[in-house]
Amino acid sequence: AILAQGRSRLCKPREPMKLALVAAAFAFAEAGVLRDLDHRLAAQAEADRAASEAAGCWCKELSEALASRQREAELELQGLEARKRVQHFDNEGLRLEVAGHEAQAREHERALDAGAGIAAKEQAAYEDELTSHESALKAIRKAMGTIPQGSGAEVHAALRGLENTFTEKMEAAQEAHSNKMGEALDSKAEMLRLAKEAAAAKSARLAAGVQAVEKATTRIELYTAQQEADAVLSTSTGALCERLERESAERVQKRQRAQLAISQANAQAAQEASRQAMSNAVTFLHRGSRAGLLSADVSELVAESVGIQSKLTQMLSTVVMDAHLVQSSAVDAELKGAVESLGQEAQQSLDSLPESFDELRSAGGKSVQADQALHAEHALADES
Fold first, then answer.
1. Residue 359 belongs to a domain with what CATH number?
2. Which among 157, 273, 301, 323 has the fewest CB atoms less than 10 Å away?
3. pTM reported for the whole predicted model
4. Residues contacting 6, CB < 8 A, separation 6+
5. What's the chain's Rg over C-alpha atoms?
6. Domain boundary residue among 141, 167, 199?
């Protein structure tokens, strides 16, 4: 019995030793939690870096594409405005010239109408004169026929002289009438033809000029609409990208504070468990933006926003979930606070992502529509 009691006393641990074992167990458990949290934060940092880097490159490409299109639109607008002004003044000059030719044509038409009236009167006078000469010739010839042969030689000679005189007068009247009316009418008709041809040629040039001004006006409106849509998209892009960059930097700082707290907790655990050597300090290095940007169309870059948002959402959701898990662990309050602050920052970013990206895509859709309208007008102009 005495031996049994002795063995019982030997097998039963002393209270100080029990407390030491319990403390060591807790230290090992806490060390495991710290290692897991440290690994999670490192994985978060890598995912955050990749998502933020992709978002930063996307922001830069979209901003550069919009800036390039803005410069191109400015040059096009300057050229269109200059051509429109020049063509406008050319059109005004052509309008005056067309009006002048049309006025000349009307004047020639009035002259021809008046000439036709005068010609009608002259024709009537000419016909009366011709009838008078013909009647006189008939009377003379009739008188000559009544004179017997071989008698009245003097009378016959006189009648013959009168016949020749009236015949010459009639021929002279016919010739004068024909030359006078023909020259006058032909001259007026030719001037009328030339005036109408000039008016038609200038009218065709004027119509082409008016069409050119209308086309320039349409393109100016389309380029202006594109600029306005791009300005809204540029503002939305700038606001979103600036916030993403700021929030990424804040998460880096808060994650580094959490990692520092882990290092401090590891140091305390090492002191409390003298036979455990824990060193899981992690130094987070923030990498710069990738080089070699690829140029892309604005519409393609706007479409890429879906993938950028998805990467950011996945990364932020992981950060929030890890923060919730830490709250139920055995780590100290300071570390919990650091991780909780990181989780809250990620949650705020996660909550604001849908609205911000929806706003950008809405502005992007209007920008794409304006650009498509402009390209359609160019294509239509090329076909014509």
1. 1.20.1260
2. 157
3. 0.61
4. none
5. 54
6. 199
Tens of pLDDT, residue by residue over 196-207, are: 999 999 999 999
The closest alpha carbon to 312, from 348, 353, 253, belongs to 353
Q: Decide if 335 contacts 265 (C-beta within 8 A).
A: yes
List the one residue out of 83, 81, 60, 63 whose CA is nearest residue 71: 63
Tokens 């202006």 found at: 224
State the sign of the Cα–Cα–Cα–Cα dihedral 28, 30, 31, 37.
positive
Residue 269 pLDDT grade (very low, low, confident, very high; cuts 50, 70, 90): low
Task: Please state the domain count of the chain.
Answer: 2
Answer whether residue 101 is part of any domain: no
Residue 92 lies in a domain: no
Cα 149 from Cα 135, distance rounded (Å): 24
Domain residues for 350? 31-84+212-272+294-383
Q: What is the pLDDT of residues 39-89, one digit of tens each?
A: 888 888 899 899 999 999 999 999 999 999 999 999 999 999 999 999 999
Same domain, 183 and 229: no
Say if residue 216 is in the same domain as residue 140: no
Same domain? For 318 and 236 the reply is: yes
Cα end-to-end distance, the chain, whole Å: 119
The answer as to whether 169 is a domain residue is yes
